[in-house]
Amino acid sequence: MVAFPNPSIYEVLDRDHLGTIWQAARVAGVKPGTIRVWMSRGKIEPMDLGDDGPELFHLPTILQAAQVGPGRPRRAA
Fold it and tell me: Model-level pTM?
């Protein structure tokens, strides 16, 4: 289970809230490699858009995950 789950794609009304790994890294204030580490450790995951396009991330969820300190991720409240 992911510590910071994404909302359903049907709840994301504004496509401006979705971004590439580079945009997610910019929002979080980290390098793109850190986003990959967060994914491998189960802190975050890309949105499931059901297509073969690029990985897109829910930027408000990335920002929420970035505000948590280092260490093992805990479940979001």
Answer: 0.80
